[in-house]
Design a protein that fits this description.
The chain has 429 residues and is α+β, with helices and mostly antiparallel strands. Helix content is 41%, strand content 20%. It has helices at 12-31, 45-48, 56-59, 80-89, 133-148, 160-170, 177-184, 187-201, 206-217, 223-229, 236-250, 297-301, 318-326, 347-359, 373-382, 393-398, 416-428, and strands at residues 35-36, 42-44, 64-66, 72-75, 97-106, 118-127, 153-159, 257-259, 273-279, 289-293, 311-316, 337-341, 364-366, 387-391, 400-405, 410-415. α1 (12-31) packs antiparallel against α5 (133-148), α1 crosses α13 (318-326) and α6 (160-170) packs across α11 (236-250). The radius of gyration is 28 Å and the shape is elongated.
């Protein structure tokens, strides 16, 4: 009996950390007025395998299955396509619409640190905003989120349309642009030699290949320098990228949000801005988050490419974030009081007393075993629980408890409400 490779069960401190990160992010998303959403895990295979969806690379990792009605289905591999489906099925939604979702996704890919086969994804998306202010707001949110998690980051960004314009100016044929962009995206992983081999396999001419290799191997140029070198300063992609760069500078984000002319992201549905987030220290090398603009998916899904659904999103790499934080000490909320029944006649009173304390907002444990009082007190002391609430038959009959302060070695006979007030007063003090 074992877990499927790439899947884990989480409990104790691990689960507490996962919950803490989710709580921090959820609070922030709602501060930015994103609305919560839950989409279906199980989807029609045709939807997930659509040419407008994840592309060939991700489809290799998709889990496929057939139900009893012989329908072809798949498990979602991200939260983006189900979100696009939800928007397409609900044309009455008021735009712009901002959503967040935290949920499990599934990919049958290689397993390594921070990369699982069943993993938690956390997305924010907004649909209905065509301008760069949408990307800028998500960049602000990313910087804010990682600041709250105390993780220093660098957010690398580019514009796929701008990159396509530059490659076209180098002589890359239009029908090869998407494929070549995907190869360039692997530069950090496979190196210049690997990029050269892939370009040769694609049949790119030597002159064009050399121009691309010179672009990829040289010093990373600024957006303005690239636009000038390849004569594309007035292209749509260059104008989009320049407008976002201006916003980034005006918002004071230029030290964190860095232009990267080689970044393109592996998914083919991105139409403009793309970005990826990394640990600024370089200790953790996997991506901590990524996203971009995908204006075409929703319209194409419903067969209405004439209808505009400008959309931009950001996905937090939850498992990678948790790997970074797992090395840090986690402070869990402590138990403030434990209620211990004395004899059989005290059990009902103990349950009632615990209920009253919890209703007052006190984190309360309940002794449910049959061990002797001395051992219960020793256990409370070992766990650094300051207050032990003792309830016997006599106390229960009068609605009272014996409140034992382990730190001060004092014991008082009090009404339950008085005991609760004492614990709260000492805790706040």
């Amino acid at each position: 009996m074992q877990n499927v490779k790439g899947t884990y069960d989480f409990f104790g401190p691990d689960q507490a950390l996962r919950k803490k990160v989710q709580d921090v992010l959820t609070e922030l998303f709602e501060l930015y007025t994103f609305k919560g959403m839950e989409t279906a895990v199980l989807n029609e295979l045709d939807l997930l395998a659509s040419k407008y969806a994840g592309g060939d690379e991700i489809l290799k990792e998709m889990y496929r299955l057939t139900d009893q009605g012989n329908r072809s289905l798949g498990l979602r591999y991200d939260l983006t396509i189900p979100f696009a489906k939800t928007i397409a099925l609900n044309p009455g939604l008021e735009m712009p619409y901002k959503r967040y979702e935290i949920g499990k996704v599934f990919r049958d890919g290689p397993v390594k640190k921070g990369r699982l086969r069943e993993f938690l994804q956390c997305d924010v998306d907004m649909v209905g905003i065509a301008g760069p202010e949408a990307e800028a707001e998500l960049m602000q949110l990313a910087v804010d989120a990682f600041g709250r998690l105390d993780i220093p980051i660098v957010l690398r960004w580019n514009n796929r349309r701008f990159l396509g314009d530059a490659l076209a100016a180098m002589g890359v044929p239009e029908d090869e642009l998407s494929s070549v962009i995907l190869t360039l995206d692997k530069l950090a992983k496979i190196g210049l030699e690997g990029v050269e081999q892939e370009l040769a396999q694609k049949g790119i001419s030597d002159g064009v290949k050399q121009a691309m290799l010179a672009f990829a191997s040289g010093e990373k140029l600024s957006l303005e320098a690239i636009a000038s070198r390849y004569g594309i300063s007035d292209s749509p992609g260059a104008r989009e990228a320049a407008a976002l760069e201006k916003l980034i500078s005006e918002l004071g984000l230029e030290q964190t949000c860095i232009f990267d002319p080689f970044l393109s992201r592996g998914l083919s549905f991105y139409t403009g801005t793309v970005y990826e987030i990394f640990d600024a220290s370089g200790v953790f090398t996997s991506s901590l988050g990524a996203g971009g603009r995908y204006d075409a998916i929703i319209g194409k899904m419903i067969g209405r490419e004439d209808v505009s659904y400008p959309t931009v999103g950001l996905s937090f790499g939850m498992e990678s974030i948790l790997e970074v934080l797992r090395e840090r000490p986690l402070v869990l909320p402590s138990v403030q009081a434990i209620v211990v029944p004395i004899g059989e006649e005290g059990k009902t009173g103990a349950l009632k007393a615990a209920e009253e304390l919890r209703r007052a907002g006190i984190r309360t444990a309940l002794e449910t075993g049959s061990r002797k009082l001395k051992k219960s007190l020793a256990a409370a002391s070992d766990k650094d629980i300051r207050y032990v609430v003792l309830v016997g038959g006599d106390e229960a009959a009068k609605g009272e408890v014996r409140l034992k302060d382990m730190r001060e070695s004092k014991e008082s006979l009090l009404a339950v409400q008085e005991a609760a007030a004492t614990i709260l007063a000492q805790s706040s003090g």
